[in-house]
Amino acid sequence: MTPADPRAAAPAADHTLRVLAFLARQRGPVAARTIAAALELPRSTVYRLLRVMVEHAFVVHLPEERRYGLGVAAYELSSGFSRQEPLARLGTPVLTGLVDRIGQSAHLAVLHGRDVVYIVEARAPRRPPLVTDVGVRLPAAATASGRAQLAALPAAQVRALYPDASAFTGAFPRAPRGYVALREALRDVRARGFAWEDGDVTDGLASVGVVVRDHAGWPAASIAVTFPRDDVPEPVVPALVAEVTAAADLLARRIHGRAPVG
């Protein structure tokens, strides 16, 4: 760490934020010694920080378990993030630039249960109308946007979202109709590095979707491009995928508060 590093000027703030970020990545409350070991901090320092954060409700202490988890004040920060809609604001210029480069329509979607909700749409001139307008919800399993995000979740969580056949009811007969079919589709997404949907939502239209991950590696959203299948020859698809992937990486860096590379 150099003197120019802002963390050197405010080590307590740096330690506090690192503790909060670590707790946010855990599946449940953890012991103070676990935090200290993971962050390579003195245990006494961790206990002092936790006491202050408990007083301000950013952390909750579970005395019976001797563990610590995120408190209600941390949840309020998350709610504030949602209210201010920074994801849509950060994503709009990324999608606009993507559409300018490729000449096809693009959209940004977030996962909500078994659905995806579209929060930004950037339409290219003279392209066919899409069903993915802002605010529209579609079954995640039927869309490239949804599959890109589902593939980034642990298998147990996907299984919990789709416990039985009733979870697959919908108006898209070409989409996976059962858990085994969905599992295979998500395995394909992981192998490719992107999601591909061809006519599952709208006949004649195909989509490429790429997940946008948050600081902990979880799916925060996905960027997808939809186009008339006949307008994009097979040899052109890899270049299109590369553009969508670059846009997803750029948005991930913007979410993390990091400057674009290059």
How would you describe the overall organization of this protein?
- The chain is α+β, with helices and mostly antiparallel strands and 262 residues long.
- The chain has two domains: 6-77, Arc Repressor Mutant, subunit A (Orthogonal Bundle); 85-255, GAF domain (Beta-Lactamase).
- The protein has helices at residues 6-9, 11-25, 32-39, 43-55, 72-84, 86-102, 144-150, 155-161, 179-192, 237-255, and strands at 59-62, 67-70, 105-112, 115-122, 137-139, 195-198, 205-213, 219-228.
- The strands form two sheets. Strands 5-4-3-8-7-6 form a six-stranded antiparallel beta sheet.
- It is elongated.
Count of helical regions: 10
Whole-number total of structural domains: 2
Distance between the termini: 23 Å
**What is the mean predicted local confidence, pLDDT?**
87
Question: How would you spell out the order of helices and strands?
Answer: HHHHEEHHEEEHHHEEEH
Q: Structural class of the helix and strand makeup?
A: alpha+beta
The top-level CATH class of the largest domain is Alpha Beta
Protein name: IclR family transcriptional regulator
Keywords: DNA-binding, Transcription, Transcription regulation
InterPro entries: GAF-like_dom_sf (IPR029016), HTH_MetabolicPath_Reg (IPR050707), Tscrpt_reg_IclR_C (IPR014757), Tscrpt_reg_IclR_N (IPR005471), WH-like_DNA-bd_sf (IPR036388), WH_DNA-bd_sf (IPR036390)
Organism: Microbacterium marinilacus
